[in-house]
Amino acid sequence: MFEWLITIPVPFENISLWAIVVVALAHGFGCFVRGAFGFGSNLPIVAATTFILGPHHAIILSLITSLVSQAHLLPQGFRTGDWQIAKQLFLGLIIGTVFGVWLFAILSAEKLVLILGVLISVIILLDTFKLVEHLSHFVEFRLRWMTVGFSFIGGMIGGLSGAGAFYFLVVFLKHACQSHIKLRGTTLMLSTITMVMRFATLSFSGFISLTVILEGLFLAPVALLATWLGSQTFRSSSSKKFYQALQVLLFVGGAVLVYKGIQDWKN
User: Fold this and answer.
1) First-to-last C-alpha distance (Å) of the chain
2) C-alpha 184: how far from chain center
3) Distances (CA, A) of 42 to 163, 227, 264
4) In 10 A of CB 117, how many CB atoms?
5) pLDDT tens digits, residue range 156-196?
6) Which of 26, 107, 149, 267 is most enclosed, with most CB atoms within 10 A?
7) Tens-digit pLDDT profile for residues 56-77
């Protein structure tokens, strides 16, 4: 009578209880970041869980919980985002995301780990030392070809690594948006586009399994609570010190991923 239950996969069946706790904490922290800043959840999640789940699994699971988090945040994006700026970036983001997902699908786990580490490290270095912002004094980022180029590269990074697209794009958005509230709202709208595109493309490619969906639902309460706490933090405090701590954490995570990727490649 209940034979069909046997076919239902068990979430996190092959990892220990402590590993599940670490995965849940990583997703909680990532969703807190997304709630506070409108983007950035996937970088800490992927950096922390790649060693436990493997890169492909870690990236896909971060997408599922980010979608849960985004469903809670999207109304705020519609209310506070800048549609005029967002529409300039839609096309490049969509094309770049599809291209990035294609790269994700054809890369081996070892190569993906190394590329993840390099991407995370470079993105954090660019942001920490404000390198792109310094370049903005010499280059007009608001030109049409520049916005399309930025959005394509950002979408490709997000599609490939599941993380980092808006750490790249936020440099442009900081200059284009009139306030930090509009900046957060605009990133919420744009990140929804990239996540929906990634989910659709990965589903079509056969990467979204029932197991990972069940794991995402298992983590959904943690994701929603952390997202709400992040939203409350955004409303009540400064983000400067938090950004500094986040940069250190992500850079260390990226450096460790680079080391692991090099070791795996040698073996």
Assistant:
1) 49
2) 15
3) 5, 13, 23
4) 24
5) 888 887 766 776 677 677 777 777 778 888 888 888 888 88
6) 26
7) 899 999 999 999 998 888 888 8
**223 vs 259, more confident:** 223
Residues 157 and 119: beta-carbon distance below 8 Å: yes
Please, what sign has the CA dihedral across residues 244, 245, 250, 252? positive
Phi and psi angles of residue 262, each rounded to the nearest 5 degrees, phi first: -65, -40
Q: What separation in angstroms does the CA of 81 have from each of 38, 90, 103, 187, 208?
A: 11, 14, 30, 8, 30
Cα distances (Å, whole numbers) of residue 245 to 52, 134, 164, 248: 23, 22, 17, 5
Amino acid at 139: V
Q: Which residue has the higher pLDDT, 167 or 47?
A: 47
Is residue 40 left, alpha or beta, with left meaning phi > 0 and alpha meaning psi from -120 to 50?
left
Query: Which residues have a Cβ under 8 Å from the Cβ of 128 and sit 6 or more positions away?
Result: 247, 251
CB 209 within 8 A of CB 106: no
So where are the chain's domains?
16-266
Q: Which two tokens stand for residue 194?
A: 């990239």
Indicate the pTM of the whole model: 0.79
Residue reference for tokens 């967002």: 86
> What is the sign of the dihedral through the CA atoms of 92, 95, 96 and 97?
positive
